[in-house]
What does this fold into?
Amino acid sequence: MKKVALLVSLLQCGLWAAPILVQTDEAGIRHFVEAVQTPEPVKEKIQLQSGWRTFSDEVDAAGVLVDKIVNLGKKFWAVIESGRPVVNVNTQYANALPTGVRASELEGFSQLQFKSFRHQGVNFYGVTVYDVTYTLAHRYGGKYQGQGAYIESATVLPQEVYVAWGYKVNLEVAEVSTVNLGSRENPVASIAMETRFRVQTVLQDFQLNHLHEFRGDRAEISSTEVQ
It folds into this structure.
């Protein structure tokens, strides 16, 4: 596998001027990834999707524990299956809330924050065989009775999906975990979300995994390639 040594650090800061070559496989397909700007129409579309206004009615029976962070949303879900966006993907999301509290009971959440990635595959002849753009989105900074920094929702949404005949592209949220990065008196929620981007043909199988961290006290999303 041919990789650029600075890929991890570049993903963490989300800054580079051109696509980064992450692998050239045995069939000669070059796989690229880059962080891209999220277009305003995409932001508006996400903001209008009804799933972002849906709060879970399920709460922990243990009572309210502001320093114990729980996810009342999903722990894994498909984003793209066999080259097509999943139909109900806009209702799939995770959150990081105090135990025993609904998201609707918190206040002070930020506006939606966005971070987008583009994955491309180019063959030996310079022809693009897949071109996929997806967006991470979340709301942070919620407080419960003036305390803490929690995450209302965090998700991955497909934007542009092109896949040539003979190729199969899948993108999934493979795992979600939550933790308190702050103190008992001032909790700071964190969501670690692993995504798996996979391209398959009858001869090749390419997979790129990323770990994305959403924090309750900041807008930035950190992203790191993982094996």
In short: The longest helix spans residues 40-48. Residues 1-16 have pLDDT under 50 and may be disordered.
